[in-house]
């Protein structure tokens, strides 16, 4: 009961961490749990057949959103798993062919940095972590300059989860297509939001459901063929052979159908979502106009719904505590916000430790930010910021 009341009054501005499941999506999930509850692998009855058909519809839709073929999509538990299947799954090919160089960026999510650090430290891969500079955007040129004959893969995120900066993944995809190097894109934050980028010829795309209104615990990996050639992935888990053996385990039909419904809803409402998200961004910036702040990351290349700011002489944690009864915001990615260390993303952008430790991430869907008053943030900051002399 208490929780319901808190949620009703605290405006939610942390959709980069996770989003609310909309009732329409929840109804679909419930249906596939309580009515049509078959195992998509059951071949002997109608329950199984219905589940299998539904999953194929979902697969075909998700494939269509990135211009891929139905059979090129496998369902997973989320972007972390998709990233691991992609990067660790490619490694044996690199080992067999003597191509053990991988290029990535220093602003990736831990779900890319950790598997790549593992490949470097435990399996002898050579991994370049590129730093983007203050814009927060890695240049495609910088990536191409690092290419070597033994470069197995480039892994670059689509949209950074702390700054909202969009990376040049479509441009890279076009350029890398002429080389033997595979491109993996962690699209956890960009899927559905910047749809055109992901129709570029990217070999491997990781998708997360809970950033677009699907439940937590579902996602997908797109493994796009080059002509007839499949991306040479080897499984990292073994079991019943589901999902082309790459992701064995009973398919989570209700979650997959939730992902399908959320992706459909997001696509139908995309233009309105973008317009409204941009309008709220402008309201926030107008309200902050009276305070002394800087935007971290290039606003010209940002999604409309994520804003990372640092305030002059102001501790981000203290501000979050002061605001916590009114608005839910974060310092950086949810996975690292338990520790007060400076953000690795802001540090990799070359910002000094004080700015990097005090970045505040606001992220919103206008439909999930009811009761939000940007003036409240500005007033709280004004009351905390030392007066300008
Ligand atoms: C860029 C990025 N990659 C990966 C993930 C992990 O996604 P999931 O929670 O679906 O495993 C996140 C989640 O915050 C993210 O922002």
Structure report:
The protein has 389 residues and is of the alpha/beta class. It folds into 2 domains: 2-20 and 270-384, Aspartate Aminotransferase, domain 1, CATH 3.90.1150.10; 23-267, 3-Layer(aba) Sandwich (Aspartate Aminotransferase, domain 2). 39% of the residues lie in helices and 13% in strands. A 7-stranded mixed β-sheet has the order 2-8-7-6-5-3-4, sandwiched between helices. It has a 3-stranded antiparallel β-sheet with strand order 9-10-12, with no helix packed on it. Helix 5 (110-123) links the parallel strand 3 (101-105) and strand 4. Helix 2 packs antiparallel against helix 8 and helix 9 (270-288) runs parallel beside helix 13 (374-384). The termini are far apart. Pyridoxal-5'-phosphate is lined by residues 78-80, 109, 111, 157, 161, 186, 188-189, 208, 219, 333.
Summarize the entry for a quick read.
By secondary structure, the chain is an alpha/beta fold. The protein is 39% helix and 13% strand. The protein has 13 helices and twelve strands.
